[in-house]
Amino acid sequence: MPAGRLLNEGMERDLMRDTAKTLNNLAAVLHQLRKFDEAIAVHGRALAIKKTSDGERHFSVGHTL
């Protein structure tokens, strides 16, 4: 596998992790605003991203749950 492709995959994984973190932060704010249904939906999106980027057995997936 070419080195450039590995670099791109690593960058994509980092972007996915950053996106999931941002979504978790947004969900926390929605929770504080008592917008529980929206918070649950956003947490679900973050969880799906983490499962894709890190795998279902990664600790970050459990942390999101």
Structure description:
- This protein is mainly alpha-helical.
- It has one domain (3-64).
- The protein is built from 3 helices and no strands.
- It has helices spanning 3-32, 36-54, 59-64.
- The longest helix is centred in the N-terminal third of the chain and has 30 residues, at 3-32.
- The protein is elongated, with a radius of gyration of 14 Å.
- The termini are far apart.
- The mean pLDDT is 83.
Largest sheet: none
Q: Can you write the helix and strand succession as a string?
A: HHH
Radius of gyration: 14 Å
Molecular shape:
elongated
Q: Spans with pLDDT under 50 lasting ≥5 residues?
A: none
User: Could you estimate the helical fraction of the residues in percent?
Assistant: over 70%
How does the helix and strand content classify structurally? mainly alpha
* Count of alpha/pi helices: 3
CA distance, first residue to last residue: 34 Å
Number of domains: 1
Number of strands: 0
The fraction of residues in strands falls at: under 5%
Roughly what is the average pLDDT, rounded to an integer?
83
Concise account of the structure shown:
The protein is an all-alpha fold.
